[in-house]
Amino acid sequence: MHHLDLEKVLQEIYRITKSGGYIVFTEPNMLNPQIFLERNVGFIRNLMNNSPDETAFIRWKIAQQLRFAGFSKIKIIPFDFLHPWTPKRLANFIERIGTRFEKLQIIREIAGSVLITGKK
Predict the structure, then answer these.
(1) What pTM did the predictor assign?
(2) Which residues, in sequence order, are CB contacts of 25 under 8 Å at separation 6+?
(3) Is 119:73 a contact under the CB 8 Å cutoff?
């Protein structure tokens, strides 16, 4: 969804979702410092090869947009501190630390991704 016109895509997702059905997505978290810089600082955006349409989501804003589209039982949960460029030998260690960070509300807010769920 982070490459698309969100209002249009949410309307279409709502339309094609069965009554009583659930949606589940993972998307980049704009509150993550690296993602914020990648998406908002021109030379970093270019360095990371982000496309012009690429964005990320803030938990409470996407929840509001989902409600507006008609979804209920919305949950947006920040998760994942393991960066794709983490050297393989450090991945297990970073994953264990990230799992602990995810339990701390204030730190969890800056995780790299958000898990988005909702019901039609």
Answers:
(1) 0.87
(2) 1, 115, 116, 117
(3) yes
